[in-house]
Amino acid sequence: MPFKNYSLTKGGQLTIGQIFSPDYIAGTSGWEIRKDGSAEFNNLTIRGTFNGTDFVINSSGAFFYSPSEGAGNLIASIAPAGGTDPYGNSYVSGITSYNGGITVQLTNGTLSLTPFTVGHSPALVTSFTGELILTAPRETNTDIAGQALLYSEAGLPSSPSTNTLQVSDALDANTYGTQRLTVRAASGQGISTVTPSTTTTALTAACGARTYRVSGTLFLTCNTSGINPLIEMAAPGGSGGQIAYTCSRAGTLIATTESAPNFLLGIGAGSSYTSGDVYVCYVNGVIVCGGSGSITMEMAVSATGSFTLDSNSYLDFMPV
């Protein structure tokens, strides 16, 4: 309501430069209302909506715009839940910045980049050019609770290296690919197929027409003395490359050999293997896939009997 003290107001308007409380000290105590529209208070409670020149604060959250409040101009929001602002712009929950069809969103301790169009529901975008930079102010010897997940396509990416996730090293200025897929044997698998037939193991991954570095460790339990395992890295037709296999037992080298993909190769002589013993076979090499399909480890035995491909045997695949 207008002031009734006519020494301060005329026609409901403030006629002096400002009014203030008896204890007003700028920046310290009390309050002041100035004729130019500015004011100073200690605490402020607003029951409703606070409209600024380029922001709105209401019971749904805080919303920021550029160049001004309006449809399609939402650039950031802080909201406990997703919804639609007074101008028809859709927004998501958390602390969110909207830029170029991508939201940078922090909610429930998770930082994510998501395709999004202001004013519309989240939608798939076909390309995004930009940077995500994660930095720490100092080194620390304490663990970070949680994980950072950088997603590309599911499975082994088959797109060219220019479209894959990469890391630029500040020391050597090289760019390194970070994509890697690990396949693991969740349980033991018996290998009793006698060459030239093979058993398809659980160690398999989809592939594209590109080059992959393959590495891993196989744990093999011999169930029959006097026979040896055979291994083949099966890949799409026309694939090339070279895979090395090194087998040992309790630190003693049993055999080391190498072959191209799609070639069944015996690892050492049967006389080197004893029933009940566990052998470790290291795999390392490169496969140049001749097309899309899968890379699969096939195994066999040299004669009647069996080996077991033990649980936690694994292979890593990385596009190069």
Keywords:
single chain; 320 residues; mainly beta; Jelly Rolls; eight-stranded antiparallel β-sheet; seven-stranded antiparallel β-sheet; 28 strands; 0% helix; rod-shaped; disordered N terminus
Overall description:
The chain is 0% helix and 44% strand. Residues 1-6, 120-130, 135-149 and 151-163 have low confidence and may be disordered. Strands 17, 18, 20, 22, 23, 25, 27 and 28 form an 8-stranded antiparallel beta sheet that branches. Strands 6-7-8-9-12-13-14 form a 7-stranded antiparallel beta sheet, with no helix packed on it. Strands 19-26-21-24 form a 4-stranded antiparallel beta sheet, with no helix packed on it. It folds into 3 domains: 9-40, no CATH class; 50-115, no CATH class; 181-319, Sandwich (Jelly Rolls), CATH 2.60.120. With 320 residues, it is mainly beta. 19% of the residues are buried. The chain has strands at 9-10, 13-14, 18-20, 32-34, 39-40, 50-51, 55-58, 61-65, 74-79, 83-84, 90-91, 94-99, 102-107, 110-115, 166-168, 175-177, 181-184, 189-191, 199-207, 211-222, 229-234, 240-249, 252-259, 265-266, 278-288, 293-301, 307-309, 314-319.
